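quick one, 253 residues, struct below
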Amino acid sequence: MTAKIDLNSDLGEHEASDAIARDIEIMNLVSSVNIACGGHAGNEATMSLMLKAARQRRVAVGAHPSYPDRENFGRTTMKISPEDLYDELCSQIDMLVCFASAESMKIDHVKPHGALYNDAADDKELANVVAHAAATCIPGVAIVGLSGGAMRAAARKYRLPFVAEAFADRRYDARGRLVTRDQEDALIEDEAGRVAQALALASRNRIEASGGDRLKIRADSICLHSDTDGALESAHAIRKALDAAGISVAAPV
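---
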């Protein structure tokens, strides 16, 4: 059994006061956070709030850049040149770095969001653009990407640490890719199912994929999305289950 796992969440993606309060409460349960930096969501106020809260709770902080697509929350593939995407990602990452510097904080990792995350798992050119932008903005920063995807090789190319990520609240297909959100079984909606998947991933056991296949997915970090229904309650349950299983929760870098 794995003695240690990172538990992370994507935060700062919604501006409503209840969403901000939920995100901050989730920080008490995870070891690293990924802060939206303007591409799909997030603004100066949310970035500053999330950074201050993360510093107080001593959790690792990552940039969560995306396609420049606030209209679709970064969940739609965009046709954009590698050069323009590189510039866009650098702009987003640099913005969070600037706010972090003002708080005397450093950015520990970069994790692409949504469609860019999924596209980069299968597109080597896209993966290289993400890794290049990250390496330019924050030399030596870790890259978080889908376990088994192209981001690992891209991180190696730019001499960056790679953190293999899996999800507690998303269903996988037989290839080890996330079931797309337009499919009925894309989300694991019940708390028990999320806890079971998180424990299996942290313990290096097989999980049940869509269609009944059994998959073994390597995970250095497990993500629980903050804006899925019942996310806070699931975060409490997952953390409690990991603690009970003797699996320590700690940032990977």
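The domain at 4-249 is CATH 3.20.20.370 (TIM Barrel).
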